[in-house]
Amino acid sequence: MRTWFFTLASLLCAVLTTFSQSTHQEISPVDWVNPLMGTASKPSLSTGNTYPAITLPWGMNCWMPQTGKMGDGWAYTYDADKLRGFKQTHQPSPWINDYGQFAIMPITGKLRFNEDERASWFSHKSEIAKPYYYKVYLADHDVTTEISPTERAAALRFTFPQTEDAYVVIDALDKGSYVKIIPSENKIIGYTTKNSGGVPDNFKNYFVIQFNKSFANTAVWHGKQLETKELEQKADHVGAVVGFKTKKGEQVYARVASSFISAEQAERNLNEIGDDSFDTVKDKAKAVWNKELNRVKAEGGTDDQLRTFYSCLYRTMLFPRKFYELDANKKIVHYSPYNGQVLPGYMFTDNGFWDTFRAAFPLFNMLQPTLNTHIMEGLVNAYKESGFLPEWASPGHRDCMVGSNSASIIADAYLKGVRTGYNINTLYEAILKNTQTEGPFSSVGRKGASYYNRLGYVPYDVKINENAARTLEYAYDDFTIYQLAKELKRPQSEIDLFAKRSQNYRNLFDPTTKLMRGKNENGTFQALFNPFKWGDAFTEGNSWHYTWSVFHDVQGLTNLMGGRREFVKMLDSVFVVPPVFDDTYYGSVIHEIREMQIMNMGNYAHGNQPIQHMIYLYNYAGQPWKTQYWAREVMNRLYQPTPDGYCGDEDNGQTSAWYVFSAMGFYPVCPGTDQYVIGAPLFKKVTVQLENGKTLLINAATNSEQNRYIKVLTVNGKLYSPNWLSHKELMQGARLDFQMTDKANTQRGVNSADFPYSFSSAKQ
């Protein structure tokens, strides 16, 4: 009897396992993605500060359901009860806010167009959110809305009840807008100028909306005034309303497109849909997403791990946004967000390099080198059109964050083989200009450049905020310039200059605390130093976070701290000290502080970018097993495929790229070098289809929740002891076999010959 029972139980388990595996095989990568991950956010606490972006990879336009009021950066929050419309958006961050946006809302019953009056209750239980498709039921109007995108257009489908009072409201928003209804063509055209800065005076986003059903009635509105006898309106805040008589379940199909160039170009962009049905647009959009996501196939993880991985990979494919269009001759052209002209060539925008130089752009160099070629041409154009490289663009220059990290992005791309289709000499010229001058905003050029070039640091007492952060980032950027200058065979004196400046981080190291500290112009350290003070000399962090911003010379930092033992002790201390903080610089607890405080990982603040690489630094001191432990801890504890799934701002793909790299088992600690620093793979198998046709295979068959440590690593069948991997070798196709175990291997990767690159220990 017992034998029969166990035989049956074994068969049942086998059947369930087979069913589970086949189910996973049937799920396409895009259907693992949860666009709602990170949307349960608010100004006081970010769990991502994301919105469900319904778009194509790097698409010029995104669409989103709108819960927030007009102009609110938190335009969709998971805890909201009502939807006010469906908005075309270009927002890269709630802190930067939006531009070129307008909203569409279907309603029934009494005609109302005000955003509060037209709003409808909705439930997440009747909401479907995919990158290629969004669907929701609007309870107050008994209308179901569906959206599916192309790069510059979108298909919207409204399913109405039986009524003579079905309407679609178009809201062109305030700050100057225009609408015109063309009943004979079932069409609405117009433009919106609403923006949050960074645009020329002639900025407009032109839109066209083409319906498949004749209008029963029409109206336009401005402010609070409805005009039923007019078809055109231009004022500060205008919109349009078109009415229909519908049968129960009748679907009204609207094709929508926009352009930053002209109304004629908006019509041209509508051809991205052409005569396609809604379902055809949806199927094509799904296929595009699957093509891109299929570049990385993860297997052998839990459902939540797969959802998190592909949700993060999706987020890395939203920014920087394509800001170019195809003209009548299919030539690539763009409206310049810098000088207002329509010019040939690529343009990209909506990116903060302070965030994304760390992992997002290195991920492009591995997975999307052709895309990054186009981005580099876009940087050439931005420099020609504005005189500076864009450090934070949305769509033009924005005054946000510090550093001149365009140098890192450009150098890393060129050094990793992204070299065709753009003029590297023009970009090098732009990089050199950054090192010599301040720009029109503090985020452009180098704030404090004259001090930095003369003293080797930006002083604490010369009224330049976040001076220590600037110094540390400038020193790293100078290292990337040094690397690029060598490759371009620049004069030796120039190469030597940037090699010397790359060591400027040493000027801020305080041997009494073994931490980085602001320094006054006369060479003395700042008084009343509190290493837990956020801001002040640092940017959205404290000294415990920024001390590790010596990406290029970890050995040099180790030497300053007194050797490997002290270096590891300081690394350990980040997790050991309580999450104490000093918020006096800001005058209140900013959200980044709160996010660190509640994560129960000491003073480790993964929710913000400066410290995200720090876990990997144990590899430079002969204790790689601690990297393996903490990498898995962060992946397990701080990322979930849920509305509160991030531990801070997602920030244009950077926090997501950290997860993607870490789940594969390595991370680009120092862009501008050829190396990835090894962590611990999350899945049993990851297959990366490289753009050059080669395959990178990452096997970790013994991986499990307990087995987070590397016992043995072989690369292409040969035993491998270094704590780093070569980009060049991986791009030639490689097989990595990790044998994972539940106990730390304290004998592997402990010799200095196994450590990753550091400027101080490398042969120059």
UniProtKB/TrEMBL annotation:
Pfam families: Glyco_hydro_92, Glyco_hydro_92N. Keywords: Calcium, Hydrolase, Signal. It comes from Spirosoma flavum. The keyword Protease does not apply. One of its GO terms (molecular function) is hydrolase activity. This is GH92 family glycosyl hydrolase. Residues 265-741 form the Glycosyl hydrolase family domain. Its cofactor is Ca(2+). The keyword Iron-sulfur does not apply. Residues 32-259 form the Glycosyl hydrolase family 92 N-terminal domain. InterPro entries: 6-hairpin_glycosidase_sf (IPR008928), GH-type_carb-bd (IPR014718), GH92_a_mannosidase_put (IPR005887), GH92_N (IPR041371), Glyco_hydro_92 (IPR012939), PNGase (IPR050883). Monomer. It comes from the Bacteria. Residues 1-24 form the signal peptide.
